[in-house]
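Inverse folding, one chain.
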């Protein structure tokens, strides 16, 4: 009986120790950044899906590394995320406490920003569809180029560097 109890204690302690690095990394802010408000963090996390997708897509499309069979799934993640991008920026957070990389220009020029988000949604959906229909990298690169231009144009205009 004592033996089981001791094993249980050891197992619980091991699990708690294993969870410590996870809990601290979840609580940590991004390196060198201040704490974000809930809205800024939610917006940032949504946009990180694009970042993660880009990190997986670029090597497959341009370097021939990674698994090209994953292109449709990764492209679909990006397209699904695009359906949320405009809405995560709808709340005007100017003057809200906390860190953000969104410029005030997002809300000052909402019509332009919203139009860009609509284009991003359409272009990522088209890109996802192309990846389902062909393995021709020239076609995939062309569709991906539209997505990349959307991202860069918006970041140049609306994101603090």
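Residues assigned per position:
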């Amino acid at each position: 009986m004592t033996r089981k109890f001791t094993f249980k204690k050891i197992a619980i302690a091991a699990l708690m120790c294993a969870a410590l690095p996870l809990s601290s990394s979840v609580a940590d802010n991004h390196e060198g950044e201040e704490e974000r408000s809930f809205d800024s963090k939610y917006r940032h996390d949504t946009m990180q899906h694009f970042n993660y997708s880009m990190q997986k897509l670029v090597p497959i499309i341009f370097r021939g590394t990674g698994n090209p069979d994953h292109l449709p799934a990764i492209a679909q993640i990006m397209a699904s995320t695009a359906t949320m991008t405009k809405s995560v920026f709808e709340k005007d957070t100017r003057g809200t406490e906390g860190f953000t990389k969104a410029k005030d220009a997002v809300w000052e020029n909402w019509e332009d920003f919203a139009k860009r988000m609509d284009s991003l949604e359409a272009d990522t959906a088209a890109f996802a569809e192309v990846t389902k229909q062909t393995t021709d990298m020239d076609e995939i690169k062309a569709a991906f180029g539209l997505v990349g231009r959307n991202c860069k144009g918006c970041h140049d205009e609306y994101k603090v560097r």
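The radius of gyration is 21 Å. Helices lie at 2-27, 38-63, 71-89, 105-108, 110-133, 137-158.
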